Amino acid sequence: MTESQGGAPASPASPASPASPVDVAGPPAGPDAPGAAAPRPAPPPAARLSRLGEVPHLGLVAALALLAVVGLVTVPDAFASASNLVGILSLAATIGVITVGATFVIIGGGIDLSVGAVMALASVWATTLATQSYGPLVMIVCAVLVGAGAGLVNGLLIAYGRLVPFIATLAMLVAARGLAQRMSDRRTQLVQQGNQAIVDLSTTRVFGVPVLVYIFAVVVAAGWILLNRTTFGRRTYAVGGNPEAARLAGIDVRRHTMWLYALSGLCCGIAAVLIMARTTTGSSTHGDLYELDAIAAVIIGGTLLTGGRGSIVGSILGLLIFTVITNLFILNGLNTSDQLIAKGLIIVVAVLLQRRSLRSPT
Amino acid sequence: MSAVTPLLQMKGIVKRFPGVRALDGVDLEVLPGEVHCLLGQNGAGKSTLIKVLAGAHRPDEGVVTLGGEEVRPASPIDAIRLGISTIYQELDLVDGLTVAQNVFLGHEPSRLGFVGRSEAGRATRGLLTRLGHGEIRPGTEVGRLSPAAKQVVSMARALSRDTRLIVMDEPSAALAHDEVANLFRIIRELTAQGVAVIYISHRLEEIREIGDRVTVLKDGRTVAVGLPAKTTPTGEIVSLMTGRSVEHVFPPRPDPGSHEDRPEVLRVEDLAVPGVLAGVSFSVRAGEIVGLAGLVGSGRSEIIEAVYGARRFTGNVLLEGRPVGRGGTGRTVRLGMGLAPEERKSQALLLDQSVTRNISLAGLGRYSRLGWLDRRREAADARALVERLDVRPGDPDRPVKTLSGGNQQKVVLARWLLNERRLLLLDEPTRGVDVGARAELYAVIRELADSGIGVLLVSSEVPEVLGLADRVLVIREGTVIHQGDARDLDEHRVLDMIMEGGAL
Ligand SMILES: Nc1ncnc2c1ncn2[C@@H]1O[C@H](COP(=O)(O)OP(=O)(O)OP(=O)(O)O)[C@@H](O)[C@H]1O
Ligand SMILES: [Mg+2]
C-alpha cells in the first residue's frame, strides 16, 4: 500500500476538458428510449410514512421530554426554576464540548479514551504560575494548544504508527494524567486574582445565561457545520463507513484520521478552559471518567461505534439526557449509586431501540 | 413433466419495502433435479425473491410450498433446516474467520460441545477439492482471499449442508471462464443426485448451457414461467425481461489505428510487483479503450491497482508524462485517474449513505469552496447522473444498500463520470449488470473514450473485452503475452492463450 500525504483530492482541472462530466442532454445511445417506458415504483405514500419514522432524533427528544415531565411532577419548583435549567446547561457545557469532538472520532471509525485526561493536562498546564504570568488570553491559548497537541500525538500514533485507537488513546489517558500530576505536584492550582477573566466566563451572564454556555453552543454549531456542510465532514463519514472505499476514491484516509484526533484534542482544550472557569482551578483530577460519559452520550445519540453513521445533534441530546438524569437524582435527594445504575440501563435501552429502528427500513 | 410433483412452489409472493414493491405477486415452480434459471433486469426482484425463500426476508403475502408442504421460513436457519441452501449475490463471509470456520459457521461439527477442528478442516478440504480448488487452505483467513476464491468458499459452505435445493444468486459474476465450467460440473453432479438448483445470472450463454427451464421476472412480477432454457430465442427472452428489444450490445469502434497519432495518456514501463507481476509495459492513448484479458489471479487487477497507486510497485507509471510515483491514490486521483474496483461492496460503496453521497465521494473538491460544500449543485449533478445511467429506483436520496446489485454498480461508475478524468480504470464494470443496462454502459464507456479519455478495462468475459476494447493485452501469470488490435482476435484464440500460454 503506497499511501500518503497528497493534498486534498480535488478534481483535476485538466487542460483539455474531456468528457463533459454531467451531461444530461446526451442520453446513452441505447437502442430504445431506455427505461422511459418501464413503470418506476411510485415513492409517495409509503415513502412519506416511513419518513415520519425518520424524523431525526424523535426518540431522544421524547425521552428528554419524559424526563422533564418526571422533574415537573417530582420536584416541580426546584426543577423548573431558571437557575436549575441554567445549571444543567453549565454542567453539560464541559462534557458537551468534548462530546462534539468524540462524535467526529467515532463517526470516523475510531475511539478516544484520553479526553478526560487531556482536558486535565490542559487545565494544569494553563494554570501553572509560569503560564498564568502571561495573562488570561495566553492561558486560553495554552489550554487549547496543549489539547490539540495531545490529540495530534494520538492521531499520529494511530494513523501513521498504526496503533489501534483503543490502545493509543488508553496510553495517552495514563500518560497525560501522569504528566498533569507531575506538573502540578498533585496540587490543585488556583486561577489567580489577576486572571479572573477566565472565571468571568462562568459568572458573567448574558440574558441570564453564563458565557460558557454560549461557548458550548458555538462549539456545537461549529461542529454541526463542519460535519454536515463541509468536505471534511463528508470525508469523516466515508473514512468511518468504508475506509477502503474512501482510499480508492482518493481520500487520504490516514491524514484524515490524524486530523480527527487532533480535533478531539482541540475540543478537550476548549473544555479545559470551561472547567477552569467553572471550578476556578486547574487540576490533574479534572475530568475523571469523562471519556465514558462522552462515549455514552455519542452512542445514545445514535452514532454507530463501528463508524460511518451518527450526528452531532444526537450526541448533544444524549448528553442532555444524561445531565438531566443526574440533576433529577440530586434534586430528589437520591443515591448517586442508583444514578449510575439508571445511566447504565439507559445506555442499553437506547442502543436496543436504535437497533430496531435501524432494522425496520430493511 | 406433469407427472413430476414440483419440489418448490412459490405463489403470489408480495414483498414491500418502504416506497417500493420489490415483489408484486411472483410465482415460481421448481422441479426436483432441475436447474431453474431466474432472469430479470437489475431491480426486477430476483434477489429479493430468493431472500424470501432463504428466510432472510419475510413476505407480506404469498404461499411457499416445499415438497408439497407449506413452509414459512422465518430465519435463514429455518430455511437451512428445510434443506434450502443459498449463495448470496453479495458475499456474506466473515473476513476474520478461517475458510473452514466460515464453511461450518452455524453448524460446526462438534463433540460434546467442542468444535471438532480437525474434522472441519478435513471436511472443508474435501469440499474445496471437489470444487476444483484444493489449493485454498482451510486454515487461511477469508479476508486474505481473492473475490473469486471467496466465491468458492461460499459455494463450499452451501455444499456442506444437506440440501434439497441450492439457490445461487449470480455465482458466476466473480468467476473466470474455466471456473464457470467447474461450477457447471458441480451443478450437474448435484442435479444428478436429485438436488434442484435455482440459478441466477445475467449471462444468457450460461443459461443456455446449464439451464433446464427459465422463469422471467419484470418489475416484481412473473412475466414468463417454465420456458425451455435451451431453445427459447434470445430475442424473446430479452424482450420479456426488458419490455423492448436490445439490438446490438457493443457500440461501433473507430477505425483501427486511428488512435496512433493521439497523445499517450498512460505509459507503463517495466511494471513489477514481486511475486505477482513482472516486466509489464504498455500504453493507453487518448480516446482508446485497452482491454486486459486473463484468468482470475493472472495479475490483471494488480496491474490496475498498481497503476492507480493502491499497491506498491517497481517500474514507471506515467500519466500524461508525469510519474505517478509514491503519492498513493490521493495523487493519482488528483492527476486524473478514476477506478471502479472489482468488489463494489467492500471497495467502492458507503452502503449506509445515499446515492448522491456515493456519487460525489471522489469529487467533493468540485463542490467545495474553502471546504464548504455546495449541496445544491451536488444534488443536481447526482440526479443528472442517476437519470443518465438509468439507476433504479431513480431516487438519489435512497441509501445505496437498498439498491439491487446492478444498480449499485451503476452508482460506482457514476462517481467517475462526475469527475473529468484523463484515465478510467474499470475492473469488471458490468459485473451483475443486466443485458439492457450493459448495452447502455458500453455506450457510455465508448462515449467517454471518444471524448478523449483513456480507458483500461478488465473483464473476465472475453467477449466483452473483444467487443468493447480497441486493443487487447493478454495477461498470463503476471506477464503480457500478447498485445494487439481487438479485431484480430477471437474468443477461442484468447482463451487458448490465457490457458496454455500459446502465444505467437
Ligand atoms: N432492503 C431494501 N430496502 C428497500 N428496497 C429494497 C431493499 N432490497 C431491495 N430493494 C428494492 O427492491 C427491488 C428489487 O431488488 P432486487 O435486489 O431483488 O433486484 P435483483 O433482481 O436481484 O437485481 P440485480 O440483478 O441488480 O441483482 C429494487 O428496486 C431494490 O431497490
Ligand atoms: Mg440481485
From TrEMBL, chain A:
The keyword Transmembrane helix applies. It comes from the Bacteria. Keywords: Cell membrane, Membrane, Transmembrane, Transmembrane helix. The chain crosses the membrane at residues 55-73, 85-107, 113-130, 137-157, 163-180, 206-227, 258-277, 312-331. It is found in: Cell membrane. Pfam families: BPD_transp_2. The keyword Electron transport does not apply. InterPro entries: ABC_transp_permease (IPR001851). It is a multi-pass membrane protein. Residues 1-39 have a biased composition (Low complexity). Residues 1-45 are annotated as: Disordered. CDD domains: TM_PBP1_transp_AraH_like. This is Sugar ABC transporter permease. The lineage of its organism: Bacteria, Bacillati, Actinomycetota, Actinomycetes, Streptosporangiales. The gene is rbsC.
Automatic annotation (TrEMBL), chain B:
Residues 8-244, 260-502 form the ABC transporter domain. It comes from the Bacteria. The keyword Cytoplasm does not apply. Keywords: ATP-binding, Nucleotide-binding, Repeat, Transport. Transmembrane segments: none annotated. PROSITE patterns: ABC_TRANSPORTER_1, ABC_TRANSPORTER_2. One of its GO terms (molecular function) is ATP binding. Pfam families: ABC_tran (PF00005). The keyword Protease does not apply. This is Sugar ABC transporter ATP-binding protein. It comes from Streptosporangium pseudovulgare.
